[in-house]
Amino acid sequence: ETGVTQSPTHLIKTRGQQVTLRCSSQSGHNTVSWYQQALGQGPQFIFQYYREEENGRGNFPPRFSGLQFPNYSSELNVNALELDDSALYLCASSIGTGNEKLFFGSGTQLSVL
Amino acid sequence: ELKVEQNPLFLSMQEGKNYTIYCNYSTTSDRLYWYRQDPGKSLESLFVLLSNGAVKQEGRLMASLDTKARLSTLHITAAVHDLSATYFCAVDMDSNYQLIWGAGTKLIIKP
């Protein structure tokens, strides 16, 4: 068990709505990275949070935003949902900003109808 | 823009056979990772390759990295059914902390 937990596990929304996904990082980890994985594809980097600040961002529009809290848990918010936002959303926690030891959660499966 | 290509994307093989999955990438990087994903499960780290010529082995799996050729391989020796999964390679982009992932190789090993 990795210790990274994500909630909810599944979610159904309609186009135009807003959604918040949550990630509880592994104990002692101060960095959370979020990824989007479309069906049959590899994950795509959304952004990384380190010590409550956005530390890097991939090619995603501003309607994808995040937060990291003092206990290092994190939220991913997506506004104005589009059909193409349907995907598995993964968070990964780590100590520091390097990618050598990422621990992934099981993901949130988001369906946008 | 960094691109990562895996091949094959799908592989069906018999137990006991050997095979290699290839991961090519389009720009300079000396850090590459291999992950395994079972259906409905999380991504599990298999190998971390941090320099040219790096070779790591765990059980029936062996990974290598050639940064000059921009190529990594994941070799499976005497495959067993339990190795059935999707395998991803991911290349580290130092500039903004992101990993660029291949599309994955779905491996099915038949008894």
Topology:
The complex is a heterodimer of chains A (113) and B (111).
Chain A: E1 5-7, E2 10-13, E3 19-24, E4 31-37, E5 44-50, E6 53-57, E7 64-68, E8 74-78, E9 87-94, E10 103-104, E11 108-112
Chain B: E1 4-7, E2 10-14, E3 19-25, E4 32-37, E5 43-49, E6 55-58, E7 61-66, E8 71-76, E9 85-93, E10 98-101, E11 105-110
Parallel strand pairs in B: 2-11
Antiparallel strand pairs in B: 1-3, 3-8, 4-5, 4-9, 6-7, 7-8, 9-10, 9-11
Name the features.
heterodimer; A: 113 residues; mainly beta; four-stranded antiparallel beta sheet; B: 111 residues; six-stranded mixed beta sheet; five-stranded antiparallel beta sheet
What does this protein look like?
Chain A is mostly beta strands and 113 residues long. Chain A contains no helices and 11 strands. Chain A has strands at 5-7, 10-13, 19-24, 31-37, 44-50, 53-57, 64-68, 74-78, 87-94, 103-104, 108-112. In chain A, strands 2, 4, 5, 6, 9, 10 and 11 form a 7-stranded mixed β-sheet that branches. In chain A, strands 1-3-8-7 form a 4-stranded antiparallel β-sheet, with no helix packed on it. In chain A, strand 7 and strand 8 (74-78) form a beta hairpin. Chain A is globular. Chain A starts with a strand and ends with a strand. Chain B has strands at 4-7, 10-14, 19-25, 32-37, 43-49, 55-58, 61-66, 71-76, 85-93, 98-101, 105-110. The mean pLDDT of chain B is 93. Chain B has no helices and 11 strands. With 111 residues, chain B is mainly beta. In chain B, strands 2, 4, 5, 9, 10 and 11 form a 6-stranded mixed β-sheet that branches. Chain B has a 5-stranded antiparallel β-sheet with strand order 1-3-8-7-6, with no helix packed on it.
